[in-house]
Amino acid sequence: MASFNLLLLPGDGIGPEVMTEVQKVAGFLDKAGIASFETETDLVGGASFDAHKKAVTDAAVARAGAADAVLFGAVGGPKWADVPYGERPEAGLLRLRKDLGLFANLRPAVCYPALADASSLKREIVEGLDIMIVRELTGGVYFGEPKEIVTLETGEKRAVDTQIYTTHEIERIAAVAFDLARLRRNKVTSSEKNNVMKSGVLWKQVVTALHQRDYKDVELEHHLADACGMQLVRWPKQYDVIVCDNLFGDMLSDVASMLTGSLGMLPSASLGAPDAKTGKRKAMYEPVHGSAPDIAGKGLANPLAMICSFGMALRYSFNLAEAADLVDRAVADVLASGLRTKDIAAAGQNAVGTTEMGDAVVKALQHLN
Ligand code: NAD
Ligand code: IPM
Ligand code: MN
After folding, report:
1. Residue 77 CA: which ligand is closest?
2. Structural domain of residue 34, as residue ranges?
3. Total structural domains within the chain
């Protein structure tokens, strides 16, 4: 049986709650003889700040780099509102992405049949939806320098963030999008704002040139990012793969989450470039949602985004496509059986907690297997 090293970084708020449920799924795969996982756990975010005065330690980053894959819960919360900016919980997540070179963030938005009525949009708009947002994750305004607040001679303050993209950064993320599209419905929509931003002008040029050179068989269209947000709620099924920069990808994926019913449903995979020798990619699997301070500690969090993120690890890091399909089917079956956490329950419908939902997925896995 294949064996893999997993680093668990539960983090803050609902992070540890949803991580507990994923461990049950890993335990099932082990018992079923599908794959075994050696897990280690470390601190990140506010939890790491409380212990070490750092949002993530060098040692934790090194462990993350050495693992076959990292499972990340969530970070942040009001408790850390006043910590130094460089050590705010989110800085730990950003450092992991940057230091591990995880430039490609895959955010699939799939509307499970049973949840077509859980979306705030009409059933016919979301039913059968299956899109993939490919978000650039290690560049753009998140990391561009200067990034500062300076005091001017007048005493007034001036804040600067810097959006930077190079040809190479755009080309490698666009290639990920084109490659994925070939395995799906063969269409890529590139989203930027070339009407306002120089980085948008270069983005469009580079994506167009790469398409001409290597991917003429894939359909390519360009949508300005604001219009793309509008189209995502007007008629999302026009999309297959959307590729965009770090900031637009952050926003568009939160928008897309509501097409699936809840932010608690959206998984993601953050991938590095394949190693020249081994072909292996560094990878971190992280739900799109945050630490949800409003429901943390109450056992109400939906663990499906975290569980499906682990499903993505099976697919993209461990080459266990069948096991990944099994997890997806178990989730679909649990939802089809009517089980709902509060975020996806209809008004007046009984909702279960985090633990019950996780247990139900494991039961469904046992049944399917
Ligand atoms: P959030 O994603 O934490 O919560 C937004 C809303 O969605 C809340 O009402 C929350 O209850 C709900 N929600 C989110 N996940 C859910 C789940 N699994 N089940 C049920 N409901 C869920 O976003 P926010 O409130 O804007 O941010 C809170 C903190 O999380 C901030 O500090 C933010 O920086 C951080 N954050 C972290 C990550 C991450 O660690 N990957 C991602 C986004 C936000
Ligand atoms: C996400 C989050 C992060 C981001 C924050 C917590 C740094 O919102 O993963 O979507 O902006 O990338
Ligand atoms: Mn976000």
Report:
1. 1
2. 3-368
3. 1
